[in-house]
Amino acid sequence: MIDKTNPNRVMIQCRPSKLPGNEFAGNIVHFHSVGTTSTFVISKGSDYVKMAIYGRNEKPNQNTDIVNSVKNMFIAFGRRVGASKIQWKQLTDGMVNLK
Asked: What's the pTM value of the predicted model, to 2 decimals?
């Protein structure tokens, strides 16, 4: 979903989905479950540009084989203790870098 109704803001919402075709038998391969959303918001004001990322309903994808289920649980644990914070910070800084 892309929302550009506000001229000073762009909002993009993403969620895990199935790959087109039958490569993975129609299963979601992402480590988050189908109900997870990540919303990226870039907004500007008279003296600022900022970006924020909002994750909702972030649950590990357990609708897969045992090996991937265990992997997804470890990724979810790492995310909860802040291991992905550096990556998200680099993404947001890069998206609003005006140089």
From this structure: 0.66
